[in-house]
From TrEMBL:
Organism, scientific name: uncultured Desulfobacterium sp
Name of this protein: Uncharacterized protein
Length: 66
């Protein structure tokens, strides 16, 4: 899974945010491997391809108390 799939902007799906049952049925119909692959694609789309192997940024500092 080196390359992200292209996004087809011609397809529009309108659905109610209250209808969770249909989405549950869709994801339960997928295998666990397909679900993990979908999570990985979403993660790469949000954080970018370069950030996949990078480390977390350090945000804590230590202070010497006297």
């Amino acid at each position: 899974m080196d390359k992200l799939p292209s996004l087809d902007k011609k397809i529009v799906n309108v659905a109610s945010l209250d209808d969770i049952e249909e989405e549950k049925k869709y994801w339960f119909s997928k295998s666990p491997l397909e679900r993990i692959e979908a999570i990985e694609i979403n993660r790469r789309m949000v954080y970018g391809q370069n950030r996949v192997t990078s480390r977390l940024q350090r945000f804590f500092e230590t202070a010497d108390l006297s």
